[in-house]
Amino acid sequence: MSTRAGGPASGPAGTPTLVVVARSAEVLAEPAADERTLADWERRRLALVRIPSRRDDVLAARLLLRWCAAHVTGRPAAELEVRQHCPDCDRTGHGRPFLRGHSRLGVSTSHAEGLVAVAVGRGPVGVDVEPCDRVPPDPDLVRRRFPAFSSGQLPPGSDALTRWVRAEAGFKAGDAALPVHSWSDALRGARAAVACAGAWRLAEAAEVAPRTGPFHGLAAFEPLGRGHEWRDDRPQDRGNGDRGEGMTTLPADHLLTGHPADATQAREALGHLLDSMPSCSPSARSDALLTVSELILAAQRHGIDVAAVTARAGDDWVDLDIAYEPQPQGQVEAALTDGWAWTIAASVADKLDVTSTSSDALRVHLLLRV
Prior knowledge:
Blueprint: E1 2-4, E2 17-23, H1 24-28, H2 40-47, H3 52-73, E3 82-86, E4 91-92, E5 96-99, E6 105-112, E7 115-122, E8 126-131, H4 139-145, H5 160-173, E9 180-185, E10 190-195, E11 200-203, H6 205-208, E12 254-257, H7 263-275, H8 282-300, E13 306-313, E14 317-324, H9 331-337, H10 341-348, E15 351-356, E16 362-369
Parallel strand pairs: 2-11
Antiparallel strand pairs: 1-11, 2-7, 3-4, 3-5, 6-7, 8-10, 9-10, 12-13, 13-14, 14-16, 15-16
Helix pairs in contact: 7-8, 8-10
């Protein structure tokens, strides 16, 4: 464990922001690492993750978040209720994580290719982690993805990967004025960054993992229903007549591009659809357009055509379905994870699912709040 300078301590009761970077395997090897300790809605989301290594990363990040929050607050992890809130639409059920009943405490998580990171501290916080050997993103991609967080001052010798993790950490915190600190973890082959006010400290997963007894009865919150149902936590949004409480039926598909799919055409068509939605925020529009473009271009860079891109839209969400041409098993997945397409999609989607058919055709399905 080490403490980094940065001003007065920022956590509750004068403690600095707690930051943990670990391998997913480290977290899951702890005796307390039991997915049954997650809330019902988290387990349902976890069940939708079809790639085993990614599922391990998501599970490890959610467990580590609870452990760090319990360590900082001094409360049993079983008493902590994790929710999410979107500052763009001011709704719960998606967006940044937060702890119910701890309004002054900021929390943030990140996971990538066998690595996880968590930050917990007073006020806004953001954290990001990436493997050091990952191919750095194009600087234009960083600027498009994080226009307000990619122009800050960088430490001497910073490379493109450092620029990405710093921009991602600042974006997650939601405050471009916050100091951002970045470092390399040679033991785990990781590059990480945290955005927070004041001092911060690094700890090991073993330090924050619970040591006594199992978790019991986490209070459950359901931000998303199963299948094609959206649910909202706000009472005034419930009660939808004979359609069922809090449920909206999806309208017909919109074909965004012909065959083979063209990234520019898909962006333009999706842009027109989003422009017709009064609730769509500029940042959500930008995220959606960048995501669909990168998921098409990533495949095409590996010689894989996209058969079709379709969309459905509701009052404040859009459902995207990207169908790839049949390929030998694993080739589409490899194309999407060789670069930044999958990272971007995972960072902006409320639900991200991958399915395959008997003809080895793969489909990526995203649900985005806009």
